[in-house]
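User: quick one, sequence for these tokens?
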């Protein structure tokens, strides 16, 4: 298939393989991690619509690019370089967060109304910190602390209340040596959390909610998670619509990365999250998960947060939130198999056990044969 010179091309790594040995020139490593692939699904979009796809083996990609228009070829080389470039470790004080393997982020909600664990630790920061330390000891690399629920139809929380909920537990966790992320859309909360010892900012609005957030973070040196969403929590699930969910989420995140860079936040500090369940119906979520490897083309680490979400209930006889462990682990494994560097979960020991089994399989496949 020949693509129009005006089409925008997207490169989805596919044809994943177990081992790269004796396949020089036939395979590529995904973002410097534990996953190898042997082809790209090239998607052409023109006028906002897909106009064609083509499966291009790794061994033919240079010839494919040589046949493109100059601007398409330049964009293709840049995207492919981002897909295969290793994600360097994140240095957080004296702690190093490696991104050549999946890392677990624990969800810790200091809220009364989060969809899964709302109310579990509200007004008891000591108990919250103790439970988080148990999960750090179990293997969680990051503790993501939130003081405002962003579940569908959630009401906003005054920033003063949000700070009061999160600051004591962040201070206790940071003092104990944990890597802490603040899950907030508000600049004042981000600032208070960073002052209390948080090392990462996780913004579900991708710096669109608070006009002061980007300027605040430009003056910091912390990683920033930009998450895709459509609409506000109160309305995002009313009637979400996309013509092409995977491509539109990719383009939106690319625009938010550019906006963050323009504000003074280096791309090297940015982590992207496709926002499963945030303004998306079941089909949208499945399309994004199936195409998750596409987001490596943005050149940033990928965070996947699908733990206990509605997609699991929808695919398993409307299982309630407290009966979604199996589905949560399945989605975490899917993320690891597509190269996601950070998996945001409620159930740390179970997810870690699954990842360790997967890691054992990968280690064997990546060990040179005798």
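Assistant:
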């Amino acid at each position: 298939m020949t693509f129009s010179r005006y089409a925008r091309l997207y490169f989805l790594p596919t044809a994943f393989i177990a081992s790269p040995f004796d396949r020089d020139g036939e395979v590529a490593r995904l973002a410097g991690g534990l996953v190898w692939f042997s082809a790209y699904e090239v998607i052409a979009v023109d006028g906002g619509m897909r106009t064609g796809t083509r499966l291009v083996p790794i061994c033919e990609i240079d010839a494919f690019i040589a046949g493109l228009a100059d601007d398409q070829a330049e964009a293709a080389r840049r995207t492919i370089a981002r897909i295969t470039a290793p994600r360097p470790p994140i240095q957080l004080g004296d702690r190093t967060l490696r991104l050549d393997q999946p890392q677990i982020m624990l969800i810790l909600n200091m809220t009364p109304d989060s969809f899964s664990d709302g109310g579990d630790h509200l007004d008891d920061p000591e108990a919250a910190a103790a439970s988080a330390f148990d999960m750090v000891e179990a293997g969680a690399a990051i503790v993501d602390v939130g003081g405002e629920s962003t579940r569908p139809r959630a009401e906003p929380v005054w920033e003063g209340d949000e700070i009061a909920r999160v600051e004591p537990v962040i201070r206790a966790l940071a003092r104990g040596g944990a890597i802490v992320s603040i899950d907030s859309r508000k600049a004042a909360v981000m600032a208070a959390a960073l002052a209390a010892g948080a090392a990462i900012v996780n913004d579900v609005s991708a710096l669109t909610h608070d006009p002061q957030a980007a300027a605040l973070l430009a003056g910091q040196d912390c990683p920033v998670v930009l998450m895709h969403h459509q609409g506000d929590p109160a309305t995002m699930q009313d009637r979400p619509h996309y013509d092409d969910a995977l491509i539109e989420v990719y383009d939106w995140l690319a625009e938010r990365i550019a906006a963050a860079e323009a504000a003074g936040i280096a791309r090297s500090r940015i982590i992207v999250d496709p926002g499963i369940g945030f303004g998306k119906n079941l089909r949208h979520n499945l399309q994004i998960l199936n195409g998750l490897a596409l987001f490596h083309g943005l050149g940033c680490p990928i965070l996947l947060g699908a733990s206990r979400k509605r997609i699991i209930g929808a695919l398993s006889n409307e299982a309630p939130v407290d009966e979604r462990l199996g589905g949560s682990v399945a989605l975490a494994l899917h993320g690891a198999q597509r190269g996601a560097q950070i998996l945001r979960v409620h159930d740390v020991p179970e997810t870690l056990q699954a990842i360790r089994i997967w890691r054992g399989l990968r280690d064997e496949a990546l060990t040179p044969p005798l």
